[in-house]
Amino acid sequence: MAHSASGQRLRAPSLATRFGRSSVAARLEHEVRLTAADLADSVAEAKLRVAAARYKVEDEVRSTAGKLKSRVRKAADEAKARFGDDARFLKSWIDSPGRTGAVAPSSPFLARRMASYVDPLAPGPVVEIGPGTGPVTEALIARGIDESRLILVEYSPEFCELLRRRFPRATVIEGDAYALSTTLAGQLTERASAVVSSLPLFNKPPAERTALVEDAFGKVLTPGAPFIQFTYAVISPVPRKASGLKAQVSDWVLRNIPPARVWVYRRGRP
Length: 270
Ligand SMILES: C[S@@+](CC[C@H](N)C(=O)[O-])C[C@H]1O[C@@H](n2cnc3c(N)ncnc32)[C@H](O)[C@@H]1O
Known about the structure:
Helix content is 50%, strand content 12%. The chain is α/β, with parallel strands linked by helices. The protein folds into two domains: 59 residues; 169 residues, Vaccinia Virus protein VP39 (Rossmann fold, 3-Layer(aba) Sandwich). It has a seven-stranded mixed beta sheet, sandwiched between helices. Helix 3 packs across helix 4.
């Protein structure tokens, strides 16, 4: 039997107390284990969330990089095509300045102005003469004229080949636009809703220019339809006195080298 320092007999802890303590300890241990498990779960969950967020960020970075890459590639392709067109045009001008009539293709601004005078809802084909590398053709399509409605008359075989590649559903005719109705023979199933011309008209004598528009209004265009022509000159490229045509002219399109204006000629119903 144990005694205290004062000699009093010490009582041994009861079974219940002993059992109670170990039960508290067990409960505590259980709580600690549960808390540790909860903590481990939380850490695992947090890790999962971090991984998911990282994956999302990586995915976004990947897709943005992909989009950027394709945009850069598209811009580079466009620049290459533009540069290629400029080079082709310059070569054509060096080979035949009078026929090419310009050292560079028309700007998109001038091309859009030309196309703006064509009514996409008017029925019938649209005849483009002197399309070159196709800036006005592109603007006509952007205006809502289906490519299959376009008849392109171009003198240069190189430009014709390029136009066939670029506008596979259009009809490309390699020929002389000054003999318009003859060149179009067999290709026009109905009268055209517009003639859009980029021909360098001033390189031809006035009588030949007049003959071209007379032919266009007499044999190609539907009554009231426009003959659209751009020019760098200050005067009308079609001699108006003799032709008896109604004419309107745009303001100067300054974003073109050199600046140009668009003339629209019409002949009323007879
Ligand atoms: C001033 S460039 C215009 C090209 C293009 N439409 C543009 O705006 O950039 C004139 C174009 O008319 C073509 N051309 C010149 N005489 C022609 C003719 N008699 N018949 C058909 N095309 C002709 C040239 O080959 C050249 O492509």
